[in-house]
Every structure is written in structure tokens, then in C-alpha cells.
Amino acid sequence: MTDIKTIAIEVVYALPHEQRLMRLLVEPGTTAQEALIRSGIPEEYPEVDPASARLGIFGQALGSKGLASADQYVLQPGDRVEVYRPLIADPKEARKQRAAKAQRQAEQQKP
What we know:
Elements: E1 7-14, E2 19-26, H1 32-39, H2 41-44, E3 54-57, E4 60-61, E5 80-84, H3 91-109
């Protein structure tokens, strides 16, 4: 009998109205992309394509800042794989619009 050791990880996907968190036991050597597939999230949420989904580990996007891409990042015990949704608006543009609105409101309140 062989003793196969596993590691505990989490895969999360958040929507505006719900959050899906899956706790998994996976074999050492499992990649972030493989964990996403095993989580069942792509079947439950068809908009999540494992081949193109942006993934991160604890807020650090995979494939950037020296981290391996999702299909090459080997998970460590306790890792939290996060599935990122596309941004609806550019954060810089949204900030500019809020500042302009606040300035207009301040000008309207002047006597």
C-alpha cells in the first residue's frame, strides 16, 4: 500500500452577490490551473475558462512580478487560488470621474 500525501489548498471565485470557496486536497506538484479545474468552478460558472482565467495567490497575480503563470505555478500547502473577474471600468478613469463630480458639487455649494 502506498501512502500518497496531499496538501490542503483553497480555490475562490467572487461575484458581486456571492462568493464560492472550495477547499481541496491535491497532490504535491498540482498547478494553480489544475486546481481550478478540479474545484468544479468552471462547470458551475461557464464564464470561467481555465485556459484563459486570470489567477492569483493571496492577491498576487500569477504571471506577473516574477511569479510563474497559472499553468506552471506549483501550489504550496495552504495556498489560496483566486479567480479574478475582468474589470468593468478602468480604476484610474473611475477615480477621475469621482473627483470631477466632487469638485462640481463643491462649486455648486459656494455662495
